[in-house]
Amino acid sequence: MDTHAWQGPETRKFNYWSHLVTMLFGQWSARKSLRDLVFSINRQARKLYHLGLSVVKRSTLADANKLRPAVILKKTYYKLYERLAVELAPQPQKAPQVKIIDATTTDLCASVFPWAKFRTRKGAIKLHTVLTWLLPQCVLITDGKTHDRQAVQDLRFQPGDLLIFDRAYLDYAWLYQLHQGGVWFVTRLKTNSCYETVQEAWAGGPVLADQIIRLSSPKGQYCYPETLRRVHYQDPETGKEYIFLTNRLDLSTLEVAELHRCRWQIELFFKWIKQNLKIKAFYGTSKNAVLIQIWTALIAYLLLVWIKFRTKAGWGLLELTRLAQTMLLVEQNVSMALAVSDYAYILAEGRVHLEGPARDLLKNDEVRRTYLGI
């Protein structure tokens, strides 16, 4: 956090670390308002010393949310993501890296948030997200009027990546740009698309058609001059029909359908963060305050995933969220906590002072003398 603090105004007592911890407290404890957040965290004043915090004033927190650049939290998020991604995937992946692209909208009051352009009487913000192995690899935050296609035009992907997205992103010029860059994609074909069949493979069971097609409209031929694959699939459980479009010719039809089914992971991610983190009601009305709260929510999500990975307790993210709400700033028996932990961190004034396997820290002379009184 302090690495990027030079991009913001100089602080006195309420530094950038204190700001982040306070906002994380609001996320995990589900505080309803800024006043509620400040009141709740100040009731724990005597327990804040080990985090390097002191009593927080409401005006100070409000000014920090309004004036401190949200890019500091954004860069902190990506730094944490890079570290977590390395730990979750220590071995290089041979299969293509699947990336799911989608966006979710959070409605806002146009009169209170006039900068969040959407409709005449309604404001909104959009979170355009690229999800990789349940982790948001890239998040773009725009106003509600920004179209999904427009938001992802400037994103860059690695050759071999496999993108999954819905029809909102169907732009043949962009698809051809991805294809030329060695990027695979699976999406759904629009019902009004004009095409001609070049080759047709055998189809049976839930697969109604498996075709190699070429776009036949002048604009389609100009934007995507090469062939594509069209898969017409009927879900055997619901009977609903889907028409998929992809540039991968080597996959079976069922694999194409299963890949697109993975797109629901991002819908579940959006549903989870909206239900369990504070990204629908905000502590401030300025654009910067909203961005800070959203980036803090995403940092809180990454930390929960990290805890889930580190503890190997078998709990889901929802159970960990409930546990965090009941254990925030609760004093623990250090020796017992180390005895049941695999890995531990010891903080001093908000910084990691010691870390390592819990058994080793339990035998550390400094830990025994300072924290255990032995």
Write the layout of secondary structure elements.
Layout lengths: L15 H14 L4 H9 L15 H10 L3 H18 L9 E12 L12 E11 L2 E9 L4 H5 L9 E3 L7 H9 L3 E5 L6 E6 L6 E9 L2 H6 L4 E7 L6 E6 L6 H9 L2 H13 L10 H25 L5 H11 L6 H6 L3 E6 L2 E7 H6 L1 H6 L4
Parallel strand pairs: 1-4, 4-5
Antiparallel strand pairs: 1-2, 2-3, 5-9, 6-7, 7-8, 8-9, 10-11
Q: Can you describe what's shown?
A:
With 374 residues, this protein is α+β, with helices and mostly antiparallel strands. Among the domains are: 2-73 and 284-317, no CATH class; 170-262, no CATH class; 332-370, no CATH class. The protein has helices at residues 16-29, 34-42, 58-67, 71-88, 148-152, 172-180, 218-223, 253-261, 264-276, 287-311, 317-327, 334-339, 358-363, 365-370, and strands at 98-109, 122-132, 135-143, 162-164, 184-188, 195-200, 207-215, 228-234, 241-246, 343-348, 351-357. A 9-stranded mixed beta sheet has the order 3-2-1-4-5-9-8-7-6, with helices on both faces. It has a two-stranded antiparallel sheet with strand order 10-11. A hairpin with a 2-residue loop joins strand 10 and strand 11. The mean pLDDT is 86.
In DSSP terms (H or I, runs of 4 or more residues), the helix count works out at 14
User: Structural class of the helices, strands and pairings?
Assistant: alpha+beta
State which percent range the strand residues make up.
15-25%
Average pLDDT figure: 86
**Describe the biggest sheet?**
9 strands, mixed
**Sequence of strands across the biggest β-sheet:** 3-2-1-4-5-9-8-7-6
Query: What is the global morphology?
Result: globular
* Uncertain segments: none
Intertermini distance: 34 Å
> Gyration radius, to the nearest Å?
25 Å
Give the beta-strand count. Answer: 11
Helix content: 25-40%
Q: Classify the oligomer.
A: single chain
SSE sequence, one letter per element: HHHHEEEHEHEEEHEEHHHHHEEHH
